[in-house]
Amino acid sequence: MKRFFQVINKDSDGSCKKPKEEGNYDNATDTDTQKKKEPLKFVTWNANSFYLRVKNNFPELCKFVTSFDPDVIAIQEVRMPAAGSKGTPKNQGELKDDTTASREEKAVLFCHALMRALSAPPFGNYRVWWSLADSKYAGTALFVKKCFKPKNVFFNLDKIASKHEPDGRVILVEFETLRLLNTYVPNNGWKEEPNSFQRRRKWDKRILEFVTQNSDKPLIWCGDLNVSHEEIDVSHPEFFSAAKQNGYVPPNKEDWGQPGFTLSERRRFGNILKEGQLVDAYRFLHKDKDMERGFSWSGNPIGKYRGKRMRIDYFLVSEKLKDRIVACEMHGHGIELQGFYGSDHCPVTLELSPSSNSQNENPE
C-alpha cells in the first residue's frame, strides 16, 4: 500500500515542498496520464487565507471540488508567506517554513498539514503553482489537473521568466489553445495615496496594456478583480455609492464611494473590457439582478455591512469564446454566507463547450 503521510523535506532557504508523486507534471509521460489540450471547467475563489480554509473547512471544500470536478482552480488571497530567511530575497514560488525556536513546532505542523491535505484527493490530482507575498498577505495559487500540460507559466504581466508581481498577485498560464490569467487585483482603497488610488490606477493601466497586446490567443481572465461594474452588480447601490471611511471625502467626485464601486474604477473596467474585447461570462448568461445568488462577496453578517453584497469575482473571456460559454455560476447565497466555505467570497465557476475545430482528448 502506498504510504500517504510522506516525509516533507525542507530546502536550505526554509521552503517546504510537496513530495514528488507518480504521474506528477514534472515527470509525467504520455503513458502516465492521458493528456488533454484544453481545460473546459474552471473555479475561481478568493479564499481569504487558503490555509485556514484547508484547516477549518476542508471536508466541505473537498466535496465541492469533487462534485464540480474542475480542470483549473484559481485561488486568491492565499495569505501564506513566501520562503526565505529574514533580510534576504524571498522565493515567491515556495511556502515559508519558519523554524525559529519559538515557532518551530507550529511551522512544521503548518507545512506538513497543508501539503498532506494537498497530496490527497481531490487536490492530489492537480499540479499547483504559488505566487506569494513576503508576509501573510495577498498571494495567489493555481491548481491545474495533471492531464493538462501548460506550455508556459508566468507570475507577472510582462511574461518575464521567474519574476513575480509584488504581493504575488498574478499567475498566467498558457495552454495550447488559450491563456488563463489568475489575478488578485489591488483594492482601490479610500484615499489619494500611493498604496490606494494611485496603485489601482497603475494596475488598471498595466492590465489594459496586457489585454490589448496579447490578443493572439483567446484569454480567460479570472479572479478577485475588486470592482463591481454596474449597479446591478451590487445589492445596495445607494449604500455603496455613499460609503465613506471616517468621514473622508476624496477631492475627485469620481473617487467617492466604496472601493470597487467608484465611478473611476467602473469606467476604467468598462474600457478594459471594450479595448480587450472581453465578455463578462456571468452577465452574458444572467441579464437580471439576482438578490439571492448574484453576488460573490458578502459583508460581515454582524454590523452595518450585513446583507450588503457585491459581485467582484469574475470570469472574463475573449469574445471569440463567448459562444462556448455553457455556464457561469456563483455558488454562495444568502446573507449568512452559505456556500462561502469560511471566506467572505464564494467560489465562481465557468464551463466551456469543447472547441469545434479541435479534439480535446487525444485519440486512443
UniProtKB/TrEMBL annotation:
One of its GO terms (biological process) is base-excision repair. Its EC number is 3.1.-.-. Keywords: DNA damage, DNA repair, Hydrolase, Magnesium, Manganese, Metal-binding. Coiled coil: none annotated. The record marks N226 as: Transition state stabilizer. Residues 43-345 form the Endonuclease/exonuclease/phosphatase domain. One of its GO terms (cellular component) is nucleus. The active site is at Y184, D224 (proton donor/acceptor), H345 (proton acceptor). Its cofactor is Mg(2+); Mn(2+). It comes from the Eukaryota. The keyword Transferase does not apply. One of its GO terms (molecular function) is phosphoric diester hydrolase activity. PROSITE patterns: AP_NUCLEASE_F1_4. Probably binds two magnesium or manganese ions per subunit. The record marks H345 as: Interaction with DNA substrate. Residues 13-23 have a biased composition (Basic and acidic residues). The record marks D313 as: Important for catalytic activity. Residues 13-33 are annotated as: Disordered. It is an enzyme of class 3 (hydrolase). Mg(2+) binds at N46, E77, D224, N226, D344, H345. NCBIfam families: xth (TIGR00633). Belongs to the DNA repair enzymes AP/ExoA family. This is DNA-(apurinic or apyrimidinic site) endonuclease. It comes from Arachis hypogaea (Peanut).
